Amino acid sequence: MDRLLNVITVFSALLIGLVLGSVRRAHIRPEYSVSWLLAAFVLLALSRWRALQDWIAAALGLNDAALVLLIMAGAVFVLVLFRFSLIISNLKDSNVALMQRVAILEFHLTNLDEKNKAAAGN
After folding, report:
1. Other residues' Cβ atoms within 10 Å of the Cβ of residue 40
2. What is the dihedral of CA 22, 26, 29, 35, to 10 degrees?
3. Residues 74-78: contacts with CB under 8 Å, at least 24 apart
């Protein structure tokens, strides 16, 4: 159990460092890094706070705190992935709307160019 807690602690610390480094190098936008940082800090708290593990285990009716830690880690990352799915869906919708506006603008420019050529030819 202690080995698992130590591994989760190291993993959380590495995740925090990776996210902060990525923000610093502008590989990830700060507003998206918040979810990952929150997830890493939740894992760090769960891996170090034994009373919280025991309380969650009792609330869920589980005997093993390690199982609680793994369930909570999975739940945290499922929530982060769900949030990013929402963001990606929103970006896709925005891209479709933007492509439609560009197509309309191109259509208007083509019509304007044809009118100018026709007026210059007369």
Report:
1. 22
2. 10
3. 76/39, 76/42, 76/43, 77/39
